[in-house]
Every structure is written in C-alpha cells, then in structure tokens.
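Pipeline run #58 for the internal structure catalog. This entry was flagged by the ingest filter as a single-chain record with no existing model, so it goes straight to prediction. Upstream metadata was stripped on purpose; only the residue string is passed forward. Reviewer on rotation: M.T. Logging verbosity set to normal.
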Amino acid sequence: MSTLVTSDYEVSARQNELIQMLPKAELHVHLEGSIRRKTVKDLVEQHVTNQNLAQRINILALPGIHNQIEFERVYEQTEFKNLKDFMGRLDVNVAVLRRPEDFTRVVRELVYDASVQNIRYMEVTFSAGLHINDKTKQISSFKQLMNALDEGVMQANNEIVHESSDKHQVEVRFIIDHDRNFLNYEGPDQRQRSYNEYQQILEWCREERDNKHQESSIVGVGLGGEEAEDNMLSAFSSIVAQAKKYNIPFIPHAGEIKLAGNSEDTISIVRDYQIKRIGHGVYMTEVIDDLLNEQIVLEICPSSNLLTNSSPSIEEHPLRILWDAGVLITINTDDPGIFQKNLVDEYKLAMKRFQLTIGDLARASLTALRASFLQEDKRRAMEASFLEEFEKLGIQITDEIIPLNRRLLIPIAK
C-alpha cells in the first residue's frame, strides 16, 4: 500500500478541458443539499408574500434561524464544525421545500446543472419521510411527490434538448433516504418510530415499482445521517432484510466519520445481505481486504468530507490510500448547493490534490456507471458511449485500468 499523496499538482488547461468534456456518472447527491442558493431565497419569498425578509423568516420559522443576520450567515455557510452542524444547515433547505412545484423546480435545476458538467447519469437521494410527514408542507402523498420529481427531470431534459444539440440529456434515478439518528423521531419509543417510518418507505417503493414496473424512477433506499454507536448499520438489520426480501437495493451511508467498531459492523451486514455500494466509506480502511473481496463500491465525496470536518485535512483524507489499494471508488458531490462544489470541481480536486490522472477519473466515472441501478440495457448502451468518447478524447480505459477479475457483478434493479 502506497503512502497518501496530497501535494499540489498543477492542472493544465488541457486537463481542465478534458475533465469538463469527460462523460460522467454520479451516484451520491442529495436533492435537499443541491438547491441553488438563489432558489433558497426565491422559495422563502414565494412562501410568504408582501413581507420583508425578516418577517418572512419569522413566519416560516426556519430551523435555527431567528433573524435576517442569522439567515444570511447560514445561507452563505459552506464550512461546518462537524456533521451535526451541517445537518442544521441542511434542515433549512428541507424547510423551504413545501409545495410540489418547489420539488419540480429544484430537480429541474439540478438536472440542468448536471448536463452543463456533462453528467449523463445520476442517482439522486432524497428524504421522502421528512416531506410527507411534515404538516407545514403541501405534500399529501408519496405519489404526488414522485410525480413532482419526475416532472422536474422531464422539464430539464426538454430544456436541454431545445437549447442545444450539443448537450446530452441526463438519465436520473432516485434513492429514498432515511435518517439513522433515533433522537430525531418523536414518541416514547424513538427507535421503533424510526423503524416504522422506514417500513413505510419500503412500502412506498414497492408500490411505486409494482405500479410502474420498469418505468419507476426509484432504484433503491438509503440510510443517512450522523453515525453513532447506537445507530450503526447492524441496528437496521431488520430493515436491510426487508429491503432484500422486496428486492429493493439498499445503499447505506457508512464510514463517513471515524467511529470505533463501525467498519467491522458495516462489513458484517454488507456481507450478510450482499450490499454492493456504500455511501462515503472513507473510514473503511480497516477492512480494505473485505472491500476488495466483496467488490464493494465506495461513493467518495471529498469536498463534503473536508467541509464537514469529517476529514480534518486533505492530507489525512483516505481517498488515495483506498485508490492505491485497488478499492472500487466513485467521486461525488454529496450536497453541491451547500458546499458550492460541483462534480467538475470534485474531479479537479482529485487530480490536483490526490494526483489522479485523467484516465483514473475516467475509470471512476465508468465504475459509477457500472455500479449504478440503471436498467441493464440502458446501462450497457451508455457504457459503450462512454468508452467511445474516452477513445475520441485520447483517454485509454483498458483491462489494466479496470481488471477483468474486478468487473462489477451487481444485479441491476428490475
């Protein structure tokens, strides 16, 4: 295993150009964390009309915000003391999403912004339970919410096609997330309340899949939030088992922070239930052999780890250690609207500070596509187009870069 390389590397104009032109796939981006800054303000203004900003803030009761000065500070914040601090900022974005048209707008903008970066495929995570179970929102059902999200994708792709023949439409699928922090659930038995809400998510997914079959845009369920001793992955083993029974892919956040015993706990459940992807996973270095043996794909989000202080410095970030060990890695943004870092920025960071080559970045993009839950026929067609474009750009993707014995053998969601 080589040592971590994080010295600055000068990225040439041509390399910047290649990063922009590289066809990309992204697996880890949260809808609530992707809202454009301007859109946050626009939604605050739309929800309360004929009032100044201070009055709007007071009426909306945005979490953790009591006046205009606090709103402006939170609105512009990109660095956080820890994940808990970040979650407070994310709560503001959750609060401004209240109507179906709000969700349509933020999805439309996210997908359009993806097309500008030459992202061809993305899986977007969102927390359905936070919106459907909130009485301040005008979301009456899961079906209504999904229709709003799907409408946003359609509007964006229509706009992309009409704007330029050079731009590519973006294939989008959704993953429904759940907050693992039991303290965030009301009632005498917070743990059971959490499990009950997750069971409802699974039922929503199954119903959506059964009603729409291959046309459903939902491809899996996730588990997010701040990791702690009482909410490691094994605490949700019954939920993981139920998801497997329903044939719904389960993609947990794990190893986002350093937590004693977490890697071993996670890998045990991953192995038992044949989970093939882990959100983040940067602090899974203690079980690298298991990651390799199980062909686990990590959804690395470098800027997120740094800006939430999960990784205290770029020198201590484990990306290069995992990469050099041969772990299957993808590069992602996590919450681009809050961190103000898009996927092109993340690729440039990976080249500049972790010295990944353009071929390495192409490999990470292709790994993301191969690890995706896109329907198999569409995935294979998109992979062929990626390889063709890599060749045109002079980027070599060979079996030496992605060895045949480590090609992903991941069941595609039906």
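catalog note: The chain has two domains: 13-35+97-406, 36-84.
catalog note: Strands lie at 24-30, 119-126, 171-176, 218-223, 250-254, 277-280, 297-300, 328-331.
status: ready for reviewer M.T.
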